[in-house]
Amino acid sequence: MNDIPFEYAGFWPRLGATLVDTVLLFLFTMPVMFLVYGELNWESDDFILGGWDVILNWICPLLATVAFWIYRSATPGKIVFGLEVLDVKTGGKLTVSTSIIRYFSYYLSAIPLCLGFIWICFNSKRQGWHDLIAGTIVTKKSQIKEAHKIISQE
């Protein structure tokens, strides 16, 4: 894998992809949350409003993100920015277990002042803590296709 000329995605394209994903998730969940909880959705100080809140804001994002990583190697935001999430050892698609580990490792990257995400700026492969924990990389998609062509010609 180390001989493959991947171009790693840096902090800013990854942040842009995250913002796209956040807006899409917001556009999906907020109308449904408002239908279920009404004004309580905006006025409540409760961390969790109820079962629908858990399903819409915790379970659905987990399932959607893992499914996108497994089947498309990217979330919608990463697709927009031409990025892919790959296994660092094989350069291939993520497994279910790797995807779940990466997803929950986001929290470890975020909790201490988002230092795990800022780490992307300093790591040689542009890996955040969540990538290091799960064994993943984020690359520019065009480079991946060229790398696969190189491998298949050898």
Task: Give a structural overview.
The chain is mainly alpha-helical and 154 residues long. Helices cover 62% and strands 6% of the residues. It has one domain. It is built from eight helices and two strands. The chain has a two-stranded antiparallel ribbon. The longest helix is centred in the first third of the chain and has 27 residues, at 11-37. The radius of gyration is 17 Å and the shape is elongated.
Q: Mind sketching the topology for me?
A:
Blueprint: H1 11-37, H2 40-43, H3 51-72, H4 76-80, E1 83-87, H5 96-110, H6 115-118, H7 129-134, E2 136-140, H8 141-153
Helix pairs in contact: 1-3, 3-5
What distinguishing features does this structure have?
154 residues; mainly alpha; 8 helices; 2 strands; elongated; cell membrane; transmembrane helix; membrane; RDD family protein
Short recap of the structure:
It is built from 8 helices and 2 strands.
Q: How far is the first residue's CA from the last residue's CA?
A: 14 Å
The tally of beta strands, per DSSP, is 2
Number of helices: 8
How much beta, percentage-wise?
A: 5-15%
Dominant shape:
elongated
Structural class: mainly alpha
For the largest sheet, list the strands in their spatial order.
1-2
Largest sheet: 2 strands, antiparallel
Oligomerization status of the protein chains = single chain
Overall mean pLDDT: 91
Q: Supply Rg.
A: 17 Å
Number of domains: 1
Helical residue percent band: 55-70%
Low-confidence stretches: none
Q: What is the H-and-E element order?
A: HHHHEHHHEH
Subcellular location: Cell membrane
Pfam families: RDD
Membrane topology: Multi-pass membrane protein
InterPro entries: Pra-immunoreactive, RDD
